[in-house]
């Protein structure tokens, strides 16, 4: 009988130790998971992102989603299409944005390698796309990626838009993938940074 009680106590103690170790393991996992999430979805250039997000009335986390998707925070990024910098702006788009927000400034396409200039121009462009498409992030992202002309043509076709205002389907694989990356990245940013 004494041996049975001793065995029972050992089992209880062993279970208690296992529960404590499991709790410590869960806490450590949560800490490391948060660090991994923040490493995978970073906040960089916060001064510029915060300023221009506020100026153009955009959630800064949305801008981070665009920057992460476009360049993965590389200010010197270049695309095959000739887009430059953090938010991957083409020369045609740069010229159009410059005519809207900086017509008298001595800026050139080369200045898009400067993080502040790029975020300033990219933020304006994101805000313009959101305004044009009634704050629908997916449709705005499609326009940021493929241009308004393409998106407007798709909106006029019932198989891509039921209401003529937002896209329900994306006929081009690159556009579809881009929209998915932006919306997914934005969702992750919200989950990570709004939960803290």
Structural class: mainly alpha
CATH fold label of the largest domain: Lysozyme
Radius of gyration: 24 Å
What sequence of helices (H) and strands (E) makes up the elements? HHHHHHHH
User: Low-confidence stretches at least 5 residues in length (pLDDT < 50)?
Assistant: none
Helix content: 55-70%
Q: What's the structural domain tally?
A: 2
- CATH class placement of the largest domain: Mainly Alpha
**Average pLDDT number:** 91
Instruction: Report the count of strand segments.
Output: 0
Gist of the model:
The protein is an all-alpha fold and 196 residues long. The chain folds into 2 domains: 1-40; 46-193, Lysozyme, CATH 1.10.530.10. The protein contains 8 helices and no strands.
Descriptive notes:
The protein is an all-alpha fold. The chain folds into two domains: 1-40; 46-193, Lysozyme (Orthogonal Bundle). Helices cover 66% and strands 0% of the residues. It has eight helices and no strands. α2 packs parallel to α5 and α6 (137-146) packs across α8 (173-193). The longest helix has 39 residues, at 2-40. The model has no long low-confidence stretch (mean pLDDT 91).
SSE topology sketch:
Layout: H1 2-40, H2 46-55, H3 60-71, H4 91-101, H5 115-132, H6 137-146, H7 148-155, H8 173-193
